[in-house]
Design goal:
- The protein has 181 residues and is of the alpha+beta class.
- It has one domain.
- 30% of the residues lie in helices and 23% in strands.
- Helix 1 crosses helix 2.
- The longest helix is centred in the middle third of the chain and has 23 residues.
- Lyase that catalyzes the covalent linking of the heme group to the cytochrome C apoprotein to produce the mature functional cytochrome.
Length: 181
């Protein structure tokens, strides 16, 4: 991941927070034990670098939401990882890549049946005791709660990437859960 500046943009209209939150996600191949989330300023700068048009005033809501969604994604990855009993018993996140323009085959097929396409996609590579395993995460807008219309909802479709071991894991998961993934 490229170093992201904490410096304000030249045309920025308000100061943004520079504090960073420590995640619960173990980090592989680093002196830091856990991943550290970007500050409001770093997040804003990254969005600008990616040619998005963020609003400074939104960063106080967007950044905590981003962090919570990533924690949820990690939790879902751990559900998959629990199928593997390993000696080290602690998978770690090696790297991640946002791929918002790349639609997964599963998401594309679902769209043919009227489902909405995901608004984002990530590929997360996990170190499982020396074995690299990639997970695909499709991010969808979730259903609105009529009792809390202001609340934001997300649905994450997390699964192993297609590979021999990924397909095997999906089959085992379907067998254990009694559903096709």
């Amino acid at each position: 991941m490229p170093a992201i500046s904490q410096q304000p943009q030249k045309d920025q209209s308000m100061a943004l927070g520079k504090d960073r939150e420590i995640s619960t996600i173990p980090r592989a191949e680093s002196s830091e034990k856990l991943w550290v989330y970007p500050s409001e300023q770093m997040f804003f700068n990254a969005m600008r670098r990616k040619n998005w048009n963020p609003e400074e005033k939104d960063m106080g809501v967007v950044v905590p939401m981003h962090n919570a969604v990533n924690e949820q994604a990690w939790s879902k990855i751990l559900e998959w990882e629990n199928m593997h009993k390993t000696q080290c018993n602690q998978p770690k996140l090696l790297k991640f890549q946002g791929r918002p323009k790349d639609i997964t085959p599963k998401a594309r097929i679902r769209s043919w049946f009227g489902y909405t396409l995901p608004f984002d996609r990530h590929d997360w590579t996990v170190d499982r005791c020396g074995t690299k395993v990639t997970y695909v995460i499709d991010f969808y807008t979730g259903k609105r709660d009529p009792r809390r219309p202001e609340a934001v909802s997300f649905y994450l479709d997390v699964r192993p990437a297609v590979s021999p071991s990924g397909v095997w894991d999906r089959l085992k998961w379907a067998w254990q859960k009694g559903s096709f993934v």
